[in-house]
Amino acid sequence: MASEIEQDTSNRTKEKAVKTIELIKSFTGELPKDFRLIADIQELIENTIHQRSLSTRGDECHLTTIATDDGSLFEKLSDWSTLPSVEKNNHKNFLEENYSPEDLQLAYDEYFARHGRIPALRDFRVFILQWQGRPRKNCLVEMQQKNIDLESDNSNLNLNQENFRLALDHAVHVSTEQQNQLQNLITDRVNLQRRFEQAIDTAEQLNTINVQHVTNNGLLQNECTRLIGENNQVNTRCNRLHQDNRRKDMQIVGLDKEIVQLIVQVAEKETNLKQKDTTIEHLTSQNEQQSTTIEQQGTTIEQKDTTIEHLTSQNKEKDGKIKDMKCMNKKLYSDLQEKQELCVEKDRQLKKQCLVIDELHVEMSATNERLANLEKGLEKKNKHISEQDKMISDLNDKVQSQDKVNQDLFEQLLELKNMLLTVNQRQEAAESNKKTSSS
């Protein structure tokens, strides 16, 4: 409806512009130069007061004016183009039902003559309801005067009813929109409540998991502290074993020196025995002539026998010491094996703990960063334990090498014993030879 009215008004403005152009051309014989001239002439024609001729016939007064159509009259109103279509139709229908086009034109001209301006729609309606200067309907003046108030009240009531209906429609529309918004808000609130409850459930689950992880972390930390204490004890034991091995190395060095001295003494004894053999052979040939020298040599031989016995006793004591050292080495080796077994068991336990820690780390990698730090610490401790295992393996290698050295020493001692036995056998043979020669 509004588009039709706008199209009608645009058509009317075009018709007016064409008529003004024809008017200008009829007077001047030329077309207008620009649109401003057309607009000025249209404004001049529209604002010109209509001529009125007043004639008196007896008591009646007759008013004549230029006749115009009703459409052009309503379009002349100042606020006609800005009003809504509903209000336009209501006012137009009311005025057309109650007044003729001539009365509307006369009221329009009277309003312009009194106020000097183009009326608005509502002002024109109020003015025509209160206007009493309509000469064509003098017979109805008294009735209209009586009905003016009723009509004004009815018009006001109609306006109020129309405004109330529009306001009511607007309120109903607003209330429906508000109800829709409220329903949407309620659904959103329900969804948010569900999400909030789900978030609370997940948070509670995460809290329980975190509590379990914290307890497991406490147990693991206690286990790690216990293992660290045991590792410290193993380190102290290893240090003690290192010190014992150093002491044994010092003792073995001393024994090596004593064995070298014994070897030197045995070599000297062998040379002496060789010399004795030569002297005994020489003495056997000259036994009768050198009896006195033989007695002296017998005394010297007795002295040498005492020294040999003393050396054999010393060798026996050294053999006992070597046996004791060997027993000590065996005990130390057994202790090292037991400690190695303990270390292996602890290594297994640590590997199991590492597996448990890895599983816990896989479970808690997404929620707790502290376990990552603890896993790094455990990896460092595992590296430290592996280094300790390497140290223990090195100690075992050293013990094995020490056992080899002890075996070599034992073999050397056996060789020395065999050499001493051969020396004793030679001495016994020499003594037997002396006895036979003396006899």
Characterization of this structure:
With 439 residues, the protein is mainly alpha-helical. It contains 9 helices and 2 strands, in the order ααββααααααα. It has helices at residues 2-28, 35-47, 70-76, 85-98, 101-115, 121-130, 141-285, 291-364, 370-438, and strands at 53-57, 60-64. It has a two-stranded antiparallel ribbon with strand order 1-2. Strand 1 and strand 2 form a beta hairpin. Helix 7 (141-285) packs antiparallel against helix 8 (291-364), helix 7 runs parallel beside helix 9 (370-438) and helix 8 (291-364) runs antiparallel to helix 9 (370-438). The longest helix is centred in the middle third of the chain and has 145 residues, at 141-285. The model is unreliable at 49-70 and 133-142 (pLDDT under 50).
How are the secondary structure elements laid out?
Blueprint lengths: L1 H27 L6 H13 L5 E5 L2 E5 L5 H7 L8 H14 L2 H15 L5 H10 L10 H145 L5 H74 L5 H69 L1
Antiparallel strand pairs: 1-2
Residue ranges: pLDDT <50 for 5 or more in a row?
Answer: 49-70, 133-142
What's the number of helices? 9
Mean pLDDT, all residues: 77
C-alpha Rg, in Å?
70 Å
Total strand segments: 2
Kindly summarize this structure in a few lines.
This protein is mainly alpha-helical and 439 residues long. The chain is built from 9 helices and 2 strands.
Key attributes of the depicted protein:
439 residues; 2% strand; 2 strands; mainly alpha; rod-shaped
